[in-house]
Amino acid sequence: MEYSEGLIVKESGGLYYVLCKDGQKTACRAKGIFRHENISPTVGDRVILDSSDKDGHVICGIKERKNLLIRPSLANLDRLFIVIPAARPDPDLFTADKLSAIARHNGIKTAIVISKCALDLEKAAQIASIYNKANFKVFVTDGAENIGVRELGKYIKNGCRGEISAFAGASGVGKSTLMNLIFKDTARATASVSEKTGRGRHTTRNVELFETENGAFIADTPGFTLLDFEKFDFFELDDLTGAFAELEPYITSCKYTKCTHTKEEGCAVIDAVKRGEIPPSRHQSYIALREILNKKHPWTKKQ
Q: Between the CA of residue 233 and those of 39, 136, 278, what are the distances in Å?
C-alpha cells in the first residue's frame, strides 16, 4: 500500500478535496469504515490517503483533532474572526458572545472584526469599546470604503502563519467582501443585503479553505448557523466562567466560593460591571448562557 498525508480543504457532493504535502490537490472519497464508526471527515482534517486503491486516492485515516465545530463542520481551527456589522443587519452581540465562548472553550484564538463602520461610526465605536475592554483584538473595517482592510490583512498574513482561521458571522455582515479585498486571488461571491429584511442573502455555499501566500489557511463559511445551547453540548455549566476571559481576574475575589456571578451581594464580578471594568453586554450574555445551561438536562444534549 502507498500512503500519504494531506489537509481537507473542501467537501462537496461526497468528494473531499485534499491538499497534499507536495502541493498537489486531489479529489477523493472516504473509506466506508468511517460510516460504521459514525465518523465523517471534514474540512480542516489532516488525513491519511491510500493511493493504491483501485479508484485512486481514498481517505483511510483521520489524524487526531484539536477541536471540531458544527454547522458548518470545521476541524482544527486555530483562530476565529467574528464579524459584527455596525449596521445592516443590526449587530447581534449575543450571537457574537456565544461564538467567542465556544471558541475560547475549544482553545481557539478570537478577534472581533467590526464591519460596515461607515454606516454608523458611533455604533462601531461602541462595539469596539466593548470588545477592547473584554481583551479581544479588535479591527474596525468597512469593505465598501476600504477602511481598516489593510490592517486586518496585514495581521492575518503576518500573524496567522501556519494556522487555520475562519470568518464567522451572520449572513450579510460582510465576511466574503472582506475576504475578497484581502485575498484578491481567492475572490468569493457576494450579494447585497435585502432592502426588505436588512439581512444578507447566503452567498457562501460550502466551507472551503484558501491558502494564503504565507502558508496560512482561511476558511470562508456559510455562517455558524447552529448555536443552540439548549440542544447541543458545546460545554458544561462549570466551563462557562472560563469561556469569558474578562471575568477570570475577579472570580477569586468573590465573597462566596460558589458565587454564580449573576446577582450575589459581594460578587467581585458584579462590582466590576458596576465600575465599568466588565462590559454590561458581556455580563448579560454570561447570565443568559448560564440560565440556559442551568436548565439543561443530560437527555437534551446532542453532539
A: 17, 25, 27
Q: How far is CA 158 from the centre of its chain?
A: 20
Going along the chain from its start, the domains and CATH numbers come out as 3-64 (2.40.50.140), 69-220 (3.40.50.300), 237-300 (1.10.40.50)
- Choose among 79, 127, 132: nearest CA to 104: 79
pLDDT at 297 over 90: no
What tens digit of pLDDT does each residue of 180-205 get?
Answer: 898 876 544 343 443 444 444 444 45
Cβ(266)–Cβ(255) below 8 Å: yes
Q: How many CA atoms lie within 13 A of 158 on its CB side?
A: 6
Query: How many other C-beta atoms are found inside a 10 Å radius of the C-beta of residue 122?
Result: 9
Q: How far is it, in rounded angstroms, from Cα 73 to Cα 11?
A: 10
pTM of the predicted protein model:
0.86
Residue 299 CB burial class (10 angstroms; 0-12, 13-18, ≥19) = exposed
**pLDDT score at 56:** 75
How many Å is the maximal CA-CA distance in the chain? Answer: 69
User: 3-7, 39-43, 108-112, 200-204 — which is least confidently predicted?
Assistant: 200-204
